[in-house]
Protein 1
Amino acid sequence: MSPTPAQGLSDAIRKVRRERVAVVAFLTAGFPSRDHFRADLEALASEADVVEIGVPFTDPMADGVTIQRSSLAALAQGVSLHWIIDTLKSMPPLKAKLVFMGYLNPMLAYGLEQLAADAAQAGICGFIVPDLPIEESADFERAIAPHGLAMIRMVTPVTPAARLQQLCSSAQGFVYAVSMTGTTGHSVGDSAGLPQETLDYLDKVRKLSPVPVCAGFGIREHKQVAALDAHVDGVVVGSAVIEAMEKGASTVELLRKLRGS
Amino acid sequence: MTPVMNKAEAAGLLAKLLAGKMPDEHGRFGPYGGRYIPETLVPAFDRLTDAVHSILPTKDFQDELAGELRDWVGRPTALSPMRNLSRRWGAEVWFKREDLAHTGAHKINNALGQALMARRMGARRVVAETGAGQHGVATAAACARVGLPCVVYMGEVDMERQAPNVGRMRLMGATVVPVTSGDRTLRAAIDDAFRDWVSDPINTFYCLGSAIGPHPYPYLVRELQAIIGREARAQMLERTGSLPDCVIACVGGGSNAIGTFHAFLGDASVEIIGVEAGGRGPGLGDNAATLATGTPGVLHGTYTMLLQDRQGQIQETHSVSAGLDYPGVGPEHALLGEIGRVKYIMALDDDALGCVQECSTHEGLLPAIESAHALVGARDWAARNPGKRILVGLSGRGDKDMPTLQKTLLADLGVKA
C-alpha cells in the first residue's frame, strides 16, 4: 500500500533529518505578484523541503503585520483558493512537499469536501489552519481523512501538558511548534541564541510527537537554525521569506544562508 | 435573515435558550458561536472561561458590580415616555435611556464588569478595541476607576469620525493606538487588539466590547448587558402594568440589542426587532446589515453571519455610524434570527439621520446615530401598529457624533457651529 500524502510528508522530513534539519518555507500565494507565483513557488520548492502555501485571508488574526500585508496585496490581485488550486494543478510535480496554510473561512466558503478532493489532486499533503483548534476541527478532519491529507497541529510554549499530549497524539504530517508566544514575524531569542526554556519545550514536544516536529515563528538567521538543530526536525521560515520577496531579494539565497550552505 | 428551520426545531432551540442552556459547553448557540482561536490563545481563553464561571456568578462579585453600577454608572437608567414622538408616530413610544449611563452609552455596563473581572484575575493591563469610540471611552473610564493601565486600538477612519472620544480616552489615561491596517475601522481594530493579546496572554486582559468573538465573550458580554432589559421590563411593568408590544434596538455587533432583548425573549406576546445599518442600500459593501444580507462563516473566532464574498473574504462595510460598521454579528443574534424569535431589519443612513433630527427637535434628546437606527424601526413599526406600545433601547447619546453631524445634518441646514 502506498503511503498517504500525510505519511509521505512525515517521511520526507525524516529522510532529510538524517543529514540535516529540514527547511519549511512559507509564501503567500500570489504575493508580491500573482503572475510570478509559479516561478516564486518553483524557486522556493527547489531549495526548501516543504513549502507552506499561504492562502490569503482578509483577517489573519494569528499573524503579524508582514503576513497580513502580503495577504491583502495578494487579495487585491484577485488571488483566491480556486485560482491557487488551478495553478498548482497546471504545474509539473515539485521536489518539495506542499501544504496549505490558511484561515478557516475561505476554506469553508470553498466547501471542505470539495477542497480536500481538489487539494489532494493539486499535490497538497496537509493543512495548517491557525484558527481551527482541536475542539473545532472534527468536520475538517472528516473531510480530509478519505484523501489521506494531514491535519497539522500547532503547539505553543504555553500549551498545558495534558493538551500538548492530546495535540501530539493526534498529529499528522508534522507538529508545528510555535517557538514563542505571539504572532508570526517576531524573532525568537537574542543574538546569543535561544533561551534554554525554548529548547526544553521543543525537546518535550519531540518526545511526545509520533511525527516530525518543526519550529516556527520568527526564524531569520543561520545561528537560530544552528541552535535549533539538535532539538527539532525542521524549521519554518515565514516572515523572513515574505520580507525578502518584498525587497526583491532571492529567496533561494535566503534559505541557503539560513541553512549555512 | 429568513428563518430556515422548521417550527418544532426552532421552538426546541428557543426553549433551550430560555432554560439557560445556551451557550452550551462548546460555546454554541445552536449551530452558531464556538471558539475558533489560535493555539497561542487557548490557555488565555481557558483562564477567562474559568473566571467567567468562578468569578462572575459569585455574590461577592455581583455585589461589587451592582454597587459600582449604582454609584458610578448611575443605574438604573430611566425609562422615559416620549410624548412628542408618540403623538407624531401614532403609537406609545418609550425609551430605555442608556444615553444617561456614565460615559453616554450602554458600553459602560460591559466595560466595568470586565475591568472588575480583570482586576480579580490579576491582570496587569487591559486592551480593548473600539469603533464608535464608546467602548474605548467606557473601558478607559472603567480602567481608571479600578486602577489598571489601558490600551485602546482604534481604526484611523474612526479616530477621525469620533475625534471627541479620542480626547476623552486620553484624558482618562488610556493609550490610544491608531490602527492603520486593513479597513482602518472596528474590524481592523479587533484584529490588532487580538494580536496584542496573543503577544502577552497572561498579563493582559482583553476587554471585548460587543457580544461577538470566541466563547466566552458572547456569553460574558450578554450577561453584563442583560441588566438593560431586566431593568426596562420591571420599569415598564411598574409604570404601565403591562409589557410592551414591541421591543426594538439597533444591532452592530449586537451587545446593546442582546442586553435589551434577553429579558423579553420568553414573553411570547412581545415582538422583538433588531435594526441593522442599511447604509446606502442592500448591495454588498454598501451596508453593515449582516443578518439581513449576510451568509454564515467564521470571523474573529466565532461561527456567525458575515458580510463576505463567495470566496469567504470579509467585505468592507459602510454605515454612517461607526458603532454599527462591523461585517459580523454576535452568534446569539444569528440564532435568534434563524429561529425567528427576533426579526432583523435595516435602516438606511439617511433615514437614521432623519430620526436623529426628529428626536432632537421634538424630544430635546440627541441620540447616537447608532440608536437612531432603532428609531427608524420604531417609527415604521408604529405606522403599521397604531396605538401599540413600543420600547426602544436608546443605546447612547449623540454628542460623540458631532463631527459626522457637522458634515451631514448641519451642512444641510447651512449652519456652521
Protein 2
Amino acid sequence: MNPLASLSKEMEELVDSFMAKAVVGNTTVGLTQYIFFMLVAIAILLIVMFTFKKKQSQSLVPQGFFVNGMEFLVEFARDDLCVSLLGKNWKKHFPFVSAVFFFILFNNIVGIIPGCHPGTGTMGVTAALAICSFVYYVAVGIKRMGVLGYLKSMAPAGLPGPMAGMVWVIELFSNLLRPITLAIRLFCNMFAGHIVMGTFAILATLFVEPLLQGFSAVALGQAACSIFWILLLIIIYLVEILVAVIQAYVFALLSAVYIQLVEDE
Amino acid sequence: MGVIGYGLGVIGAGFGIGLAAYGATTAMARQPEVQGRLFTVFILGSAFVEALALIGFVVTLIS
C-alpha cells in the first residue's frame, strides 16, 4: 500500500482547518479560532506586563530570571527598534512601536504552541495592525508639516517641474502599498509556516499507519521513514520559533522606518 | 500546475536572498564593526524578498 495515496485528501482537510470558523457564536457575531487565541495572547501579555511592572518596582536592582529577561526584551525594543532609527525622537514613538512589537510577538509565540492558532494567522488582524501603523505615520507627518506640507514632502525637493509630478505619483502609490505589503507579509509568513508544519506532521502519521494495520517488513521500513519526517518537523518547528520573533521584529522595524521617513523630512 | 508555478516563482526569491546574504557577508568581512547595523538591513531586505515567495505559496494552496 502506498502511504502517499491519501496525502491530497489529508492536505485538503489541513487547509480547510486553517479557514476561519466560529468557536463562540457564529461568523457574524462571535469569535473565530484566530480571534479567540488573539484574546488569549492579549490576556497573557497583560498579565506578564503587569507582573513585570510590579516586581520591578519592588527593588531598585532587577532580580531574578523573569525581571531580567523582560528588561532585556524591553531594552531590545528600545535600542534596536527606536533609538537606532528614530534618534532623539525615540521617546515620542516608543509606546507605539513597542506595543506593536510585543503584540505580534506574543501572538506568534502563542500560535507556535501545538493546538493553538496564531492571532496573526488571519488577514483581518494583520490588516488592522497595518492600518494602525499607516494611520500613525500619516498622522505624525500631518502633525509636523500640515496636510499640504505632508503631501508636498512625498516628492523629494529640488526636482524639475514635470519630473517632480511623476515622482510624486509614484511615491503616492508606494505609500498606499505600504500597509498592504505589511499585512500580507505577516499573514503569509504565519499561514505558510503553519501549513508546512502540518504537512510534515501528516506525512509522519501516514508513514506509520501501515505498521499499525499489520506487521510486515515493508511496513517497518516505512515506519523508519517517519522518524525522518519527525526530525524534519522538529527542525521546521525551531525555524518557526525564529520566524515568529523575526516577523514581529520586521513589522515593528518597518513601522519605525516609515515613522523615521516622515520625521526626517 | 500550481506547484510548478510556485517552483518557478521561488527561483527569483532564492536569487534575491542569496544576493542579500552575499552582500551582507562581504560587507561584514570588510568592515566587522558595522555588523550590528548590517544585520538589521539584511533582515529587512530578506523580509521583503521572502514575502514574495510566501505570497506564491499561499496563492498555490488557495487556487
